[in-house]
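Treating backbone geometry as a discrete language has practical consequences that deserve illustration. Part of our work consisted of pairing the sequence of a single chain with a tokenised description of its backbone. What the numbers capture is local backbone geometry rather than side-chain detail. For completeness, the protein is quoted in full, as a sequence line and a line of structure tokens:
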Amino acid sequence: MTRHAPAILIVDDEADFRDMLHEFLAMCGFTVLEACDAEEGMKAFETGRVDLVIMDLIMPKAWGDATMREMRRIRPDLGIVVITGDSCNAALTNLQKEAGFLSILRKPFLLNDLLGLVHHLLGLDSETGTFINGTSGLGNPATPGPSPADTNSSRRST
């Protein structure tokens, strides 16, 4: 059985940042979709095949938290990586409690840290990028990712 390249939706208001993530993830073999805000992100999610979402929490038109909650309501197993440059620990903790499992990366972060989370959430082997035996390759594995306190914001790449 042939499996499709996992589709990742990037939702961020910073075009240069989206472009950089798009290029990196495409080079890693993923299908990449983009949206410039939460509203466009929801439209892309509803109209396309999305296996994982990478979303900025704070954007000019609207925060991404309501969109993440709605995406999770529609697809409870959806992997979501929240990226943020803000240190709003209370908001992130509340979002984790309300929306379920989320992985959080604080800007700046290393691209390899993002890739590791993407592999983990999609059930891909981190060495080969191939699906791990016994998984569908989609949805969340049983092991949670880092909490807001676990993310090391002093490391730089983005």
Observations:
- DSSP finds five helices and five strands in the chain.
